[in-house]
Amino acid sequence: MADGAWPRLYSCYKCQNHICCHDDIVSKSFQAESGRAFLFSHAINVVQGPKEDRRLITGLHTVADVHCSDCGEVLGWKYVKAYEQLQKYKEGKFVIAKFKIVKANW
Ligand SMILES: [Zn+2]
Questions:
Q1: Separation of 105 CA from ligand 1 center, angstroms?
Q2: How far apart are alpha carbons 78 and 90 in whole angstroms?
C-alpha cells in the first residue's frame, strides 16, 4: 500500500466482493478462453475448486478454477503447478478474466 492510500481494488462484477488489488497485477497480457485476463500474485475472497491438469498454449499445468466466495461465480483459475521451467513463475498465481471484475476504490 503506497503512502497510506487506499489500495485500488477489483471486485466481482456480480456481487462487488473484493477479489484482488491493482498492485498485485503481474501481467495484463493474459489470454483466457473468454478474452483478456490479468495475472495476479494474490487473490482474496475466492474459493479454489478441484485441481486438474490442463494443457495450455504454454504447456502442461495443474490448475484449479477459482470462484467468488460470495456468489460462486467462476472468475478465473489458479496455477497450482507448472511443468515447464519457464512457466514456474506462475505457480501460486491467479488468472482472473478481465470482464469478471470491476474497479473499486479508484
Ligand atoms: Zn461474486
A1: 17
A2: 9
